[in-house]
Amino acid sequence: MSTPLVPPADESTASPSTDRKASASIRVALAFYAMLVIYASCFPFSGWHDNGLLPWTYLGERLPHYWTGFDLAANVIGYVPLGALAVLAMYPHARGALAIGVASIAGILLAMLLESVQSYLPSRVPSNLDLMTNAAGMFIGALVGEAMRSPVLEQSRLRQLRRAWFSEQASRGLIVISLWPLAQIFPQPYLFSHGQLLGTLSRWLSEWLETPVDLSQWLWSGLGSGMEHYFPAEVIVTACGMTGAVLTLLCQTRRQAPKAMLAILLLMASLGVKTLAHAILFDPDDALSWLTPSATSGLLIGIVMLAGLSFAPAVAQRRAAIFTLAIELLVMNIMPANPYFMSTLQEWVQGRFLNFNGAAHFLSLTWPLFALWFLTHSSHQAPHHTARHPAHHEP
């Protein structure tokens, strides 16, 4: 039996005005973005100390004398998506003025809490001006979210396309996979080398114990870390990271979805973001510095792996994605720090992009964990009682 190219009749014929269902994708996106805001506001999570003042003392201080237009704009813009997602996430239980009010108050309370936490970080300065700009961004975002409610949630063709191309469990997965290109912004020792958890843990332990700690060097067990090891490591990390990410997308698609086009768009977006980030953070001449011989080899191997796995059943694709992402995490964390990459970082001055780089670092650090969370979620174990209807088949 051929597979229909449109959603099932009971879905596609539903009236837009009566399609008032909560969006799981938006609620997952809200949770992810809130974590980004929290991580960026507390980055780099080092040097915690008590300065002897109450954490909310900044509320009664005078407005700071030194500020820039960039700082004000960044504080406003950073909270606009949070406000919009908060309003859309409350649909259909709260709409209009009620949703705007609840979202604005929640955003103000979150901003107050994060500014108070910054009083314990030597690299951050709590500011009532930051609080006001964050609150303004939250309110603007809430207004934007309310304006987007009807075209996005009630009359959206994107929902029809999502039903036609992706499985029912894809709400979480689409958010996870949409973050993969953004995870390329933060500088990485190898192409697609996300989840370098041991490096972060080593730094935290070093500060806590007041002595250098390198967990990856301990795991390496003295086998050496010369150039001959970095080349195969980057090949493996690049190939497995690329394969795992693309399969995380493909295992969510239905039979009639343009899988090749979606995979190519995902890779082009990721490499495009990587190139632009290198040009901005380092130098325009370094825009393609990530395209090393080992990264090129990893890309070619990844393409070969995907060429075969793209025709596999969704269940097999999901398991292969789990396997390749686990390999990428393992190799990425047991390899000692690449001295060539560390020397490159010396040219990187974060400056006023500290919040932005904090969010980018959070994505680079945690993206494989989010992907594995989605790929191993219990929803994939649901009974396949709809198997006789191909359009409803789930991975």
Describe this structure in words.
With 395 residues, the chain is mainly α. The protein folds into 2 domains: 17-155, no CATH class; 167-392, no CATH class. Helices cover 62% and strands 0% of the residues. It contains 15 helices and no strands. The protein has helices spanning 9-12, 24-42, 69-89, 96-118, 128-154, 157-165, 170-178, 197-209, 215-220, 227-250, 259-281, 293-309, 314-334, 339-345, 354-375. The longest helix has 27 residues, at 128-154. Mean pLDDT is 79; it is low at 1-18 and 383-395.
What is the topology?
Blueprint: H1 9-12, H2 24-42, H3 69-89, H4 96-118, H5 128-154, H6 157-165, H7 170-178, H8 197-209, H9 215-220, H10 227-250, H11 259-281, H12 293-309, H13 314-334, H14 339-345, H15 354-375
Helix pairs in contact: 2-3, 2-7, 2-15, 3-4, 3-5, 4-5, 7-15, 10-11, 10-12, 10-13, 13-15
Low-confidence stretches: 1-18, 383-395
What about the largest sheet?
Answer: none
- Topology, number of strands: 0
Mean of pLDDT: 79
Strand content: under 5%
Structural class: mainly alpha
Question: Helix fraction?
Answer: 55-70%
How far do the termini sit from each other?
Answer: 19 Å
Number of helices: 15
Question: What is the oligomer described by this structure?
Answer: single chain
Structural domain count: 2
Overall 3D form: globular
CA-atom Rg in angstroms: 23 Å
Task: Give the H and E element order.
Answer: HHHHHHHHHHHHHHH
